[in-house]
């Protein structure tokens, strides 16, 4: 099924437009700054210290000359994204990811509720730890066929994939494309607060599985109650089954151990993106050796995986430019001051939920989580300092808003691709996923409030 070209502007178009808007804002907004003080490894904004400063207006062409500087400023993260993309490409080529999914489907195929719960959990863990989502697309036909054999409809299969990915991103503890980048911008240790995030993930994934299972069992009892009643699915493509081997188990285990080692290193040795990249590269080399892929194929698969991250890397560089323009114009603090002033009187709980709402809305226009982090976190970090919200909660608001709306926004290319592959009309998907999105939004809002009262910021 071919998709109609979207009339909605591409994310890069919107970000470029925001760069121009940022330049115009530097001409219109007052120039000012907050005082900042060192607090350990962070630099925190001091409330009540905003003051105007004199600054020359930026020239009209500053939005063009700032773009290369934006890429330079975001260089460490851009290279990190390329490395992670290449590593995932090698792991996928070695068959470990496909084998894990195939084995899960085969093991749970004759146990309907366990199939839904087991597959949703497995896929969600992949999203929460190494940012997987696109990698699940080839398995949609397998799940659709399996669900049809069990008396379910294609909505259940698509739901398994995208409820898992959405919740995995929303409550991720180690996702390198969202959590690590946002925490780096917020001057927090990468992977910090993982325990709280895993607890939130457990609750959220339970809510998601219950929603899926209730619908699946309802359809199995009465097919006429399917939201796809009357939809002609047509023939579906089939994906390959890959058997699990000892080599695959070792490769997957090495990644789990690698993430554990990095969590230890970031807590006790101040490790950051450089060390995390090194660990991922080491795991990729081990996976390539076990496969075995050989040096030439390993290099090709690594380059192929890295190439698939080009759009993400470009969006990060352009998004960073927005911050560069606002900083050059000395008005980024003025924006934060304007947002914080009305929020300070409402209390930190309302501010935290407001951050979640803002991030959810922003994701419609910037569906790339990495790029969204660079657009919003430079504003949300000082805003958190001013309103009494912890920076960890600000990061949590970002990732929850990103992951939650990933399940519904039509600008999300992966979602639209999964729906097309499963032959699920977008309008029917919204009827299915809408109630779950409302439940999860309330859950995440409550989680932000609880996190603030518990003082979770490390």
* Helix fraction by DSSP (H/I, runs of at least 4): over 70%
**Measured on Cα atoms, how large is the radius of gyration?**
22 Å
Largest sheet, strands/sense/barrel: 2 strands, antiparallel
| Termini Cα gap | 47 Å
Short synopsis of the structure:
The longest helix is centred in the C-terminal third of the chain and has 29 residues, at 426-454.
Task: Provide a descriptive summary of the structure in words.
With 458 residues, the chain is an all-alpha fold. It has one domain. The protein is built from 19 helices and four strands. β2 and β3 form a beta hairpin. α15 runs antiparallel to α19 and α17 runs antiparallel to α19. The radius of gyration is 22 Å and the shape is globular. The N terminus is likely disordered.
What is the fold's blueprint, element by element?
Elements: H1 11-28, E1 32-33, E2 36-39, E3 42-45, E4 51-52, H2 62-73, H3 75-93, H4 96-108, H5 112-130, H6 140-149, H7 154-170, H8 179-185, H9 194-221, H10 246-268, H11 273-290, H12 294-307, H13 310-328, H14 332-344, H15 348-365, H16 369-387, H17 391-406, H18 413-421, H19 426-454
Antiparallel strand pairs: 1-4, 2-3
Helix pairs in contact: 1-13, 2-13, 3-11, 3-12, 3-13, 4-5, 4-10, 5-7, 5-9, 6-7, 7-9, 7-17, 9-19, 10-11, 13-16, 14-16, 15-16, 15-17, 15-19, 16-17, 17-19
């Amino acid at each position: 099924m071919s998709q109609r070209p979207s009339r909605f502007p591409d994310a890069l178009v919107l970000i470029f437009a925001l760069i121009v808007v940022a330049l115009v804002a530097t001409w219109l907004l007052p120039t000012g700054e907050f005082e900042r003080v060192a607090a350990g490894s962070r630099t925190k904004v001091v409330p009540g210290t905003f003051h105007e400063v004199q600054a020359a207006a930026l020239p009209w062409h500053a939005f063009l000359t700032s773009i290369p500087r934006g890429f330079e400023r975001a260089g460490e993260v851009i290279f990190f994204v390329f490395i992670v993309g290449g590593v995932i490409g090698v792991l996928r080529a070695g068959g470990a990811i496909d084998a894990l999914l195939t084995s899960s489907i085969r093991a749970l195929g004759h146990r309907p509720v366990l199939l839904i719960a087991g597959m949703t959990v497995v896929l969600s863990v992949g999203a929460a730890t190494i940012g997987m989502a696109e990698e699940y697309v080839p398995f949609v036909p397998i799940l659709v066929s399996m669900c049809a054999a069990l008396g379910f409809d294609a909505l259940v299969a698509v739901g398994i994939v995208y409820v898992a990915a959405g919740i995995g991103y929303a409550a991720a503890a180690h996702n390198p494309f969202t959590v690590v980048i946002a925490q780096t911008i917020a001057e927090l240790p990468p992977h910090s607060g993982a325990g709280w995030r895993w607890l939130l993930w457990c609750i959220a994934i339970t809510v998601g599985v219950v929603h899926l299972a209730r619908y699946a069992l309802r359809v199995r009892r009465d097919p006429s109650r399917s939201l796809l009643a009357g939809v002609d699915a047509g023939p579906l493509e089939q994906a390959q089954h890959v058997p699990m081997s000892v080599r695959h188990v070792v490769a997957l285990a090495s990644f789990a151990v690698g993430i554990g080692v990095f969590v230890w290193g970031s807590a006790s040795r101040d490790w950051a993106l450089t060390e995390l990249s090194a660990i991922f590269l080491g795991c990729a080399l081990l996976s390539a050796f076990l496969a075995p892929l050989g040096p030439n194929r390993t290099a090709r698969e690594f380059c192929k995986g890295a190439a698939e991250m080009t759009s993400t890397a470009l969006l990060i560089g352009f998004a960073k430019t927005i911050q560069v323009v606002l900083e050059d114009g000395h008005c980024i603090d003025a924006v934060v001051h304007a947002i914080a002033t009305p929020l300070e009187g409402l209390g930190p709980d309302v501010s935290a939920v407001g951050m979640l709402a803002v991030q959810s809305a922003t994701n419609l226009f910037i569906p790339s989580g990495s790029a969204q982090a660079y657009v919003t976190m430079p504003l949300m970090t000082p805003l958190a300092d001013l309103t009494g919200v912890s920076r960890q909660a600000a990061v949590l608001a970002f990732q929850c808003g990103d992951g939650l709306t990933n399940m519904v926004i039509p600008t999300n290319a992966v979602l639209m691709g999964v729906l097309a592959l499963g032959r699920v009309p977008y309008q029917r998907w919204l009827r299915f996923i809408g109630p779950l999105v409302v439940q999860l939004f309330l859950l995440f809002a409550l989680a932000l409030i609880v996190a603030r009262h518990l003082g979770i910021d490390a």
